[in-house]
Amino acid sequence: MSIGKVILGAALLAGTTTSALAADRARATLSCKALPSPEFAYDCTVDLANARTGAPLEGATIILGADMPSMPMVHNVPPFEFKAGDKPGRYQTHIQLDMYGPWAIKLRIAGPLRDEVVAVYQFGPEGSEARKRGGAGGKSEPQPAAKPGQLRH
Question: Residues of the chain with pLDDT > 70: what percent?
Fold first, then answer.
């Protein structure tokens, strides 16, 4: 077998493996419960799985970042690292936010799978709830009519 065929075979195999790995994404389900004190403190759990196979992802490093979409870069919330939880693919951490309201949560995942998951959650006195795109029930909220000479985006 010639060296050219070996190199071509290795390149094809590497391209196939890279494509298969690139298709794997993480599915992260975040749940946070409010702690009794201090105010705006939460005990958070994330269940992490391979989105394609559904298999729990063990041995991952997960860093949570938080920012308020309505006030980008105003709140200086430090990153929080999750620790392995009580079952495969489950991770836990405590976070401290600055106020109630919608927070864009960014989960940076490293380990068996590298990915970044971003979603907006509503944080309140009880805990967190994922916000649906387009408003309640998947329907967008009605926009007021444009005034003459005003553009609507």
Answer: 71
Q: What is the CA radius of gyration of the chain?
A: 21
Architecture of domain 22-132: Sandwich (2.60)
> How far apart are the C-alpha atoms of 86 and 45, rounded to whole Å?
10
Residue showing tokens 């490293």:
110
Q: What are the residue ranges spanned by the domains of the chain?
A: 22-132
Residues paired with 41 in a beta bridge: 96
**Banded model confidence at residue 24, pLDDT cuts 50, 70, 90:** confident
Look up tokens 């998951």; give the residue: 117
- Taking the CB of residue 82, how many other CB atoms lie within 10 A of it? 23
Q: What string of H, E and C letters represents the secondary structure of 44-112?
A: EEEEEEECCCCCECCCCEEEEEEECCCCCCCCCCCCEECEECCCCCEEEEEEECCCCEEEEEEEEEECC
121 within 8 A of 30, measured Cβ to Cβ: yes
pLDDT of residue 77: 85
Average pLDDT of the segment spanning 126-147: 59
